[in-house]
TrEMBL record:
Belongs to the ABC transporter superfamily. Pfam families: ABC_tran, Wzt_C. Residues 40-265 form the ABC transporter domain. The lineage of its organism: Bacteria, Pseudomonadati, Pseudomonadota, Betaproteobacteria, Nitrosomonadales. This is ABC transporter ATP-binding protein. PROSITE patterns: ABC_TRANSPORTER_2. InterPro entries: AAA+_ATPase, ABC_transporter-like_ATP-bd, ABC_transpr_TagH-like, Bact_Polysacc_Export_ATP-bd, P-loop_NTPase, Wzt_C. It comes from Sulfuricella denitrificans (strain DSM 22764 / NBRC 105220 / skB26). GO terms for molecular function: ABC-type transporter activity; ATP binding; ATP hydrolysis activity.
Length: 422
């Protein structure tokens, strides 16, 4: 059976312009430079114009090829800047590739960002009919689905209000409902669902699963690996604009999370922080997993001691710092959270000094796989720093006694137990 989507050597190039700027420009400089350029054009009318900018080529996609069959539910994953959104825009016919081709059979409904496909001056009702017409549906077909769309989006009270007055959540609810209910052959959804609340996200995942079960094709981009694994059977992994892997979703997710750029990462000073409003007091600058001998490693055996060397920089004199350590599976399920203050350990530092801390988790029986660490700093229960998925590590071998537990049904933490008759 021929694929419903066939991508061959797809590439997309952008030209980035960098404006040349001086450190400090006065009004006198602006007037003088303008006069100089004008005079030069009078004296040398055919000379090339002086260029105040430089150009750089950026390949958002480079030689990407894959096939997708009808009815497949495919998760597209990769780090920020990997080319996911560019790929979906090409498949949605929003932008043209620089080279290569994408062959698509059937009508496509896409939801790539808040506002896609809606006219802000039209009402919700009018936009439903407009989107249906764009998809090639007759008025009778749209009308037969109208009540379902409105009920799913839960926007009955605002149906005759211009969508420019909708909140971002209402906008996404209606846009997704239109895209999913007007029976496209291919449904493309980007990370935009993150705008909605948890209950609506759950509804959306259920609807996409239903669409796939009806024999239609779904492409889904998300950084939530649990959602990707639950919905999708296959995955596409992009890395720096190139295709890294295509295949079963479990294999693709594990490859993504075991990427060398994630595992064993040490310097974290420039990593994005979760938002907080307490000023720059202290933050993590380095973290590395180490074995029992203090040697840096990227993997452990199940059942052995797991330890981490942490480094914190204090920007003012502080005391009473509590460290929060969260351990997650590669599917973003929390296994455990430990707080230094609960173990009786609070830390102090002078201004512009570094604190080096070792955290040891003895005899940690984890199932083989990839795990990630989230770190936080608190003082008087106020968050001073919070870095999510700061580092990943592997557990690559299970202890002999627990080898029969190497199965999803047993869970990820293989706890020791003691039994006795009463």
């Amino acid at each position: 059976m021929p694929p419903i989507i066939s991508v061959e050597n797809l590439s997309k190039k952008y030209i980035l312009r960098h404006q040349k700027q001086e450190r400090y420009t006065t009004l006198r400089d602006v007037l003088a430079n303008g006069a100089k350029r004008f005079t030069n054009r009078l004296i040398h009318p055919f000379a090339a114009l002086e260029n105040d900018s430089t150009h750089e080529e950026f390949w958002a996609l480079k030689d990407v090829s894959f096939d997708i069959q009808q009815g497949d539910r495919v998760g597209v994953i990769g780090r920020n800047g990997a080319g996911k959104s560019t790929l979906l825009k090409i498949l949605s016919r929003i932008t043209e590739p620089t080279s290569g081709r994408a062959s698509i059979k059937g009508r496509v409904a896409s939801l790539l960002e808040v506002g896609t496909g809606f006219h802000p001056e039209l009402t919700g009702r009018e936009n439903i009919y407009l989107n249906g017409a764009i998809l090639g549906m007759s008025k009778a077909e749209i009308k037969s689905k109208f009540d379902e769309i409105v009920a799913f989006a839960d926007v009955e009270k605002f149906l005759d209000t211009p969508v420019k007055r909708y909140s971002s959540g209402m906008y996404v609810r209606l846009a997704f409902s239109v895209a999913a209910h007007l029976e496209p052959d291919i449904l493309i959804v980007d990370e935009v669902l993150a705008v909605g609340d948890a209950q609506f996200q759950k509804k959306c995942l259920g609807k996409m699963e239903e669409v796939g079960n009806d024999g239609r094709t779904v492409l889904f981009v998300s950084h939530n690996m649990a959602s990707i694994q639950k919905l999708c059977g296959n995955g596409i992994l992009l890395r720096d604009g190139g295709l890294s892997d295509v295949g079963a979703i479990e294999k693709v997710i594990e490859l993504y999370l075991s990427d060398s750029s994630l595992i064993g990462k040490e310097s974290i000073g420039d990593m994005p922080r979760a938002r907080h409003d307490y000023g720059l007091v202290a933050k993590f600058t380095n973290v590395s997993p180490v074995n029992g001998n203090g040697k840096k490693v990227v993997s452990f055996k199940s059942g052995e001691d797991i330890a981490f060397d942490l480094e914190i920089k204090a920007f003012e004199k502080v005391d009473g710092l509590s460290i929060v350590f969260g351990l997650d599976t590669y599917m973003d399920y929390r296994i455990t959270t430990v707080l230094s203050e609960e173990a009786g350990s609070l830390f102090s530092a002078d201004k512009d000094s570094l604190i080096s801390i070792n955290l040891k988790l003895p005899n940690l029986h984890l199932k083989p796989g990839v795990y990630s660490v989230t770190l936080g700093i608190r003082r008087n229960k106020l968050a001073l720093d919070h870095v999510v998925r700061v580092i990943s590590f592997e557990v690559n071998e299970i202890s002999t006694n627990n080898k029969d537990h190497d199965s999803a049904k047993y869970g990820d933490l293989l706890t020791e137990s003691l039994w006795r008759l009463l």
